[in-house]
Write a structure and sequence with these properties.
Number of helices: 10
Structural class: alpha/beta
Strand content: 15-25%
Helix content: 25-40%
Strand order of the largest sheet: 8-5-9-4-10-1-12-11
CATH architecture: 3-Layer(aba) Sandwich
CATH superfamily: LigB-like
Distance between the termini: 23 Å
Order of helices and strands: EHEEHHEEEHEHEHEHEHHHEE
CATH topology: Protocatechuate 4,5-dioxygenase, Chain B
Shape: globular
CATH class: Alpha Beta
């Protein structure tokens, strides 16, 4: 029987693929963003945000502060990578979201599991990109070429069938027809590139639609689907050591420390009610990737507990845009 031996949560912001001196490029995107999401469900542009909160973070977006945060985040990622290596999983289930990399508006499943023999990354930020920082980001996301990652088709098919038997309507994805036009994206490539240290471990992608209405699941639904996923892993007939990874989040593109710390507290205390009742308004845009973590927490349940976590609010503008970067290890008590 398969069993979950490790749980991991990791933010995958572009900031973690770049040197801190290049974070200004993402700040420039924020200045031009006309739909910055607030956790009360409102959308504002940067001038409106600045007027509302003031330049309260101006002193902590200095080059020195950003460099220190970059260092600490990379140390946290190294810790996650070491834990994955020590756990020696036979397969890694990555719960992530697709952002018009594999799917588009013509077909946007609420949740899908990929059961191909290999995962083909989308070459979106390769040498044809004019900006050097985007090419660097592309390498960090494995989106600079047609990288191929091993899958585990039989295990993925078992997960799909078991979840369907549990009344979860899972879309089944078998291949990437034209990798020059579409393929897997950053939620999966970042984890493989940064945490697997070039080890060829089979991956099963779970694709959760967090971004695109009208069929984004509620937090309650994400958690309950996670419970079904965990049960499906337990019921797999093969003797497999399984690691499950939540990719993305936490709050962005306006950092909400209160929201992020509340989510982390719920992981530590194993409080499903706190996770299942997060309102939709708090889970828009980039903050929607918290749903990936909620689904992962549902899959882990009480099998493992949080043994370590770290949180860094990565502010990059005076008004507080950026990313709440989090790193979590679920493991057996030692």
């Amino acid at each position: 029987m398969a069993r979950i031996v490790l749980g991991v949560g990791a933010s995958h912001t572009p900031l973690l693929t770049l040197d801190s001196t290049q974070w200004q490029h993402r700040a420039e995107v924020d200045f031009a963003n006309e739909r910055l999401n607030l956790s009360d469900g409102r959308w504002v542009d940067y001038p409106q945000l600045l007027k509302e909160v003031g330049p309260k973070y101006a002193e902590i977006v200095s080059a020195e502060a950003l460099m220190e945060k970059s260092k600490r985040c990379n140390e946290a990622l190294d810790r996650l990578a070491a834990a994955l290596e020590k756990a020696a999983p036979d397969v890694i289930v990555i719960v992530g979201d697709d952002q018009s990399e594999l799917f588009d508006a013509s077909n946007q499943p609420l949740v899908a599991i990929y059961h191909g023999d290999e995962i083909v990354m989308r070459d979106k930020f390769g040498e044809n990109q004019p900006a050097e920082w985007m090419r660097t980001m592309g390498k960090g996301y494995l989106m600079d070429a047609l990288h191929r990652i091993p899958g585990n088709a039989s295990f993925a098919l078992h997960l799909t069938q078991s979840m369907v038997d549990a009344d979860i309507d899972v879309a089944s994805v078998a291949n990437v027809k034209d990798p020059t036009a579409s393929g897997f994206g950053h939620a999966y490539g970042f984890i493989v590139k940064r945490l697997l240290r070039e080890r060829r471990i089979p991956v099963v992608p779970v694709l959760l639609n967090t971004y695109f209405q009208p069929n984004v699941p509620t937090a309650r639904r994400a958690y309950d689907m996670g419970v079904a996923l965990g049960d499906a892993i337990d019921a797999a007939p093969d003797d497999l050591r399984v690691a499950i990874v939540a990719s993305g989040g936490l709050s962005h593109f306006v950092v909400d420390e209160e929201l992020d710390r509340g989510v982390l507290r719920a992981f530590v205390s194993q409080d499903p009610d706190a996770l299942r009742t997060i309102p939709r308004g708090a889970l828009n845009s980039g903050s929607s990737e918290i749903l990936n973590w909620i689904m992962t927490a549902g899959a882990i349940g009480t099998r493992l507990s949080v043994q370590w976590h770290e949180y860094h609010p990565l502010y990059r503008t005076p008004a507080g845009t950026g990313v709440g970067a989090a790193f979590v290890l679920w493991n057996e008590a030692t």
